[in-house]
Structures are given as C-alpha cells and as structure tokens.
Amino acid sequence: MGEAATTVSGLDLTRPITEGRKREDGHWVDPQGTALPVSASDLERHTYCPVSWQLSKAGVSGEGEAIKRGMRAHDQIHDKMREYKRAEDKASRELVVWSWWFTVVCALSADSAAFFFVNQGTISEDFIQHIGRYLVILAGVWLLLAIMLISLPWRRWLGRPFGLAQPPKIESGLNEEKIESPFNTEGSGVGIAGTTEVRLLFASIAVALHGLAIYWAENRTTLAFALIIFTLIWLLITAWKLHTVLLMEKEANIAKQETGLGKDEVLAYSDDAGQSASLLIDEETGVRGRPDQIVKIDNQYIPVEQKTGKIPENPHDSHKMQLMAYLHLVENTTGVKPDYGILRYGTDTLFTVQWDSITKNQLLDSIKEVQRLMVEGGAKRNHERRGKCTNCSRRNQCPQSLV
C-alpha cells in the first residue's frame, strides 16, 4: 500500500533537504559550521511521525478543519493573555501612583504635627532645624550612593540572578506600554536592572526638599494650619485613588481567571504567531522556537504549551518533545534551569514534564536525528497505527500512509 501511495503522490522522501556534515558532538552543521536549524514544531512533527515532518519540510501543508480550529483557539488564548497583561500593568501603575499620593499624605501629616508641637513649645525650634539639616545630609548620602550604583557594574560582581550577565531581554509579545527611561528598569525587585538606583534618586530629591522646607520655614503657625487643610484635601484624593486601584485589581483578577493561569503564576511571555514575541534560539544545537507562554513560578521561568482539541488521558509524546525544546531554550536563554514545563489541554487539564538529564538527552537525540534526516533524507513511518494516519493532516499526500 505504501508503494502505491508513493506513485500517486510523486514525493521522494529519500532526497536530502540541505547540505551538511556531522559534528564531533553528533549535531549536524551546514558548510559554514552553523548548526542546522530545528524548530520545536519540527521536533513535535517528527516525534508524531517522521514522514509527516518531512512532508511539511517539502512544502506539504496540513489540511483539515481541526488545524483551523486550533489556530483560532491559539489566537483566542493569546488575546486573553494580552488582555490580562494589560489589566495587570494598568493595576500596577495605579498602585504605584496611589503609593506616591499616600507617601505625600504621611509627609504632610508629619510636618503638620511637627509645626504644631513647635508652636506649643513641646518641640524646640533648634530641634526641628536639626531634623531639617539631617534630612538634607541623608538626601546627599542617598544621591552619592545612587551615582555610585549607576557608575559601577555591581550586578555583574554579584553574579545574580543570571550569572555574570544582566537579565536577558526577551520580547514578551504582549505589546506592553513602556515608559522610556535612561535606566533599564526591566524586571522587578532589589538588584534588578536599575530599580534600586531610580528609587534612591527619587528618594534623595524628596527628602532634600522636605528637609529644606522644615529648615527654612519662618511663620510656622500659618504654615501648620495650611498644611492641615492641604493634608485633608490630599487625603480625600488618595482615598479616591485607592478606590481606583481596587477596581483595577478586580479587573486584572477576572482577566487572569479567564486565562487559566494559577494564583501564583506570573505571565512573562506570550506567543503571538511571531508578530512581536522573541524567537528563542540556541546556536549550539540549532533548536529554536516560541513557547505559547512563559510564566514565572517560585522565581523560575516555566514554559507553557497550550494544546487544543481532544483531551488525552496522558500527554502525547510529540507534545512532550515540543515542550522539552522550550525547556531547553528557556534554560539556555536565562541561564537558570527550570524544574519542569506545563502542557495544558483545554482550560482545566494540566500535565507537567520534568526537565532533567534524561529528558534533555532525549531532546538532544531527537534534534540530531532531525538534522540527520535533513542531510541524508529517508524519513520512514515510525508506527503501524491506522488511526494515527487517519488523524494526520498530511495523509492525502503521504507516500507511506496506512489509509
């Protein structure tokens, strides 16, 4: 039956796809010595059936309504991820703005109390002026520290959290609105790409102005009354800002629930069919790809692969191989090894694939085999299951089909 199909299709699977040679480590490279490119999708198709993979490399497109449904479902998933990220970013910005307003309320309240007690004689004039001087000195120290941190490569000295390099820049594919800054404020947390320096600069300016105002104030009675009135007005605005923050957080939580992300999962990347999301590449092995999502769980970047259609009792080997490729790419890009990856079927069914030396060797063996077939040709069907051929989107052009 396979020979008859070969005559009908006219496709010769024995022909090589490209030129290359085998490297000492088993990988195949082109005449220039560059590892032959193998995508995560190539690995998924090859694991499903090497013939289906070679047909796709020969330009035979998959057919069937299932493929169209899958593409639409993936687009919907990405739209939900993007909407959640937009809502989360908006809520974060509102929270930052509210924290600024609340900080001003605290500062105004402290000033009002200080001036009131000075007028009552509870606090001496000399004492309040000393406080003003100390605040100015503190601001100067913070300013010098910020300048030193900007000038010195202290993150590279610490080697955290990405070895001796800065955090990798991966386009998230989420079309985030970013405020341009002379500092690289990518990431979050102390020691991550400029956050510490920016906070020190703003704090030094605020404390300096505060100290000068306390030191130079003359008519403290009038100033204390004005500060109390101004503080009350500012407090009302801050309360309104807090209400806005709570609404934004509620919207973000609803959007997150619709994506299916867990409570402790932070979305870091979402594939948008190559429109803006970065293509992750390992030049050493040639593997490359775009995970559907990368989420941050317990300070680990975990790739997530979304699968549509029928939900299996156990994850398919081809899907696991594709996820292994993403695990390798995430580790290669960030320098931090994830413990596992996630296969999501539908919205509620999750499987984890462990990332260890065994699965890594399986991945490398598969990459080498795909590269070998690219150079030598000769892909052969790896199963005797008629049902698998029936469900194959390239069965009509397959020279080795069982149906």
Can you describe this structure?
The chain is of the alpha+beta class and 403 residues long. It is 54% helix and 10% strand. The chain folds into two domains: 2-63 and 279-397, Lambda Exonuclease, Chain A, CATH 3.90.320; 77-259, no CATH class. It has helices at residues 2-9, 40-48, 50-57, 65-120, 125-151, 154-158, 195-216, 220-259, 317-334, 357-376, 386-390, and strands at residues 21-22, 28-29, 38-39, 266-270, 280-281, 287-289, 293-297, 300-307, 340-345, 349-354. The strands form three sheets. The chain has a five-stranded mixed beta sheet with strand order 4-7-8-9-10, sandwiched between helices. The chain has a three-stranded mixed beta sheet with strand order 3-6-5. The longest helix has 56 residues, at 65-120. The termini are close together.
Core attributes:
403 residues, alpha+beta, Lambda Exonuclease, Chain A, 2 domains, five-stranded mixed beta sheet, three-stranded mixed beta sheet, 11 helices, 54% helix, elongated, disordered N terminus
Summarize the structure.
This protein is an alpha+beta fold and 403 residues long.
How would you state the average pLDDT, rounded? 76
The number of helical segments is: 11
Largest beta-sheet details: 5 strands, mixed
Order of helices and strands: HEEEHHHHHHHEEEEEHEEHH
Distance between the termini: 9 Å
Strand content: 5-15%
Number of domains: 2
Structural class: alpha+beta
The radius of gyration over CA amounts to: 30 Å
Low-confidence stretches: 1-10, 161-168, 174-193
Widest sheet: strand order?
4-7-8-9-10
For the secondary structure, the number of strands is 10
Cα shape: elongated
Helix fraction by DSSP (H/I, runs of at least 4): 40-55%
